[in-house]
Write a structure and sequence with these properties.
Elements: H1 3-25, H2 29-39, H3 52-71, H4 73-77, H5 86-111, H6 117-125, H7 143-160, H8 169-197, H9 201-220, H10 232-237, H11 245-263, E1 273-275, E2 280-282, H12 288-295, H13 302-315, H14 317-332
Antiparallel strand pairs: 1-2
Helix pairs in contact: 1-2, 3-5, 5-8, 7-8, 7-9, 7-11
Bound molecules: Phenylacetyl coenzyme A.
């Protein structure tokens, strides 16, 4: 973690402790209780008082996370009809359905903070809220389903396991189940790549070409470098985030290197090497300029992903209308 960020976290923590002391003096129980809960590593629950910025920060992160799961169904959904066997098709369908489920748990967790499902969906459809950059890249070959499982779900796990200890109870609990399912997703991707890599020469080439395309976008999933991360200091002081973007990116690289060896695939970074002094790998950072361009809407598939989502939402209007009419009828009975 960058030293600047460490200082900011330390300062934010010191301010929080000072604010708690003042609150206790003033008998302002709400703030003092909140600070005590965070300091003691306990969970904040929906009924508890919480600072406005904590609530807003959580809604932002959980909503973006939910949107990512929902938009994230599209790249792999693209291969369901073309999976190479019935078994692969069944597994892929189950995985994409899990992603829908994750989106729903996360929307439900965000709703406990006082925002409605309609507001959240509208924020995605209108483009006011974003989703993970990674889902704006195309899936060009069957090997991409393997690379998404291995690298994208792998990155998601590294990022999300610490979120199981997040200070907000409903988010932390949703993450426990999501992480269990992500771990199955990661293994299925790894197994696809392993099969391809140990198959024919053409299959091996397809697997390698796919890893070459997905490596840097996967590294970018962890967000901007610590020095440019706007939310990390507050999120870490509130124990929403437990590790910085750079720490998690490093952890992911260190995890992937031995796995790539077993796969018989190369990670596309000539400067990737073990640094015995640091006890970690040195590696080339992703292009953060590209990350920001993709987040702002200028990635290869942003327009396609949003068009598809808007169309699916419009196509589902009759289901929402029918459900609302049925609920109104039941209420009258
Ligand atoms: N893409 O200050 P920070 C999955 C934005 S789920 C887009 O560092 P923060 C499962 C960031 O929002 C993948 N935007 O922000 C799956 C902020 O913008 P804002 C999603 C990004 O929140 C697998 C600005 O940059 N996972 O993959 C990205 O402290 C396969 C400044 O950044 C989660 O959402 C990015 N990559 O840290 C599904 C996990 N990076 O809001 C289907 C929960 C940064 O001010 C198939 N989220 N930004 O407009 C998090 O852990 C954090 O929100 C981070 C960003 C780490 C993503």
């Amino acid at each position: 973690m960058g030293e600047g960020l460490l200082d900011e976290v330390a300062q934010a923590e010191a301010e929080m402790i000072a604010a708690a002391a003042t609150a206790v003096e003033r008998h302002d129980d709400s703030q003092a209780y909140f600070d005590a809960v965070i300091a003691a590593d306990q969970k904040v629950e929906p009924r508890d008082w919480m600072p406005d910025d904590y609530r807003k920060g959580l809604i932002r992160q959980i909503a973006q996370h939910a949107h990512s799961e929902i938009i994230g169904m599209q790249p792999e959904g693209n291969w369901i009809t073309r999976a190479p066997s019935l078994k692969r098709k069944a597994i892929l369908m189950a995985k994409v359905q899990d992603e829908a489920g994750h989106g729903l748990y996360l929307y439900a967790a965000a709703e406990t903070l006082g925002v409605t499902r309609e507001e959240l969906v509208d924020a995605l459809i209108s483009g006011r809220q974003k989703y993970s950059s990674i889902f704006n890249y195309p899936t060009l070959s069957w090997a991409d389903v393997g690379a998404i499982g291995w690298l994208v779900d792998g990155a998601a796990i590294v990022n999300q396991v610490p979120l199981c200890r997040c200070s907000y109870g409903p988010y932390a609990r949703a993450m426990i189940r999501i992480c269990k399912e992500e771990s199955f997703h990661q293994r299925q991707g790894y197994e696809i790549l392993h099969t391809l890599s140990h198959g024919t020469e053409a299959q091996h080439r397809m697997a390698q070409e796919s890893v070459d395309r997905w490596w840097y976008p996967s590294l970018a999933m962890f967000g901007p470098p610590d020095t440019e991360s706007t939310h990390s200091a507050a999120s870490m002081a509130w124990k929403i985030k437990r590790h910085s973007n750079d720490e998690l990116r490093q952890r992911f690289v260190d995890m992937c290197v031995p796995q790539a060896e077993v796969l018989g695939l190369t990670l596309p970074d000539p400067d990737l090497r073990w640094n015995a002094e640091r006890g970690q790998h040195d590696f080339t950072q992703p292009d953060f300029g590209e990350l920001m361009r993709v987040v702002k809407g200028d990635g290869p598939c942003n327009a396609q992903r949003m068009d598809h989502r808007r169309r699916a939402h419009a196509d589902g209007a009759w289901v929402r209308d029918a459900a609302a009419a049925y609920a109104a009828k039941r209420e009258k009975q």
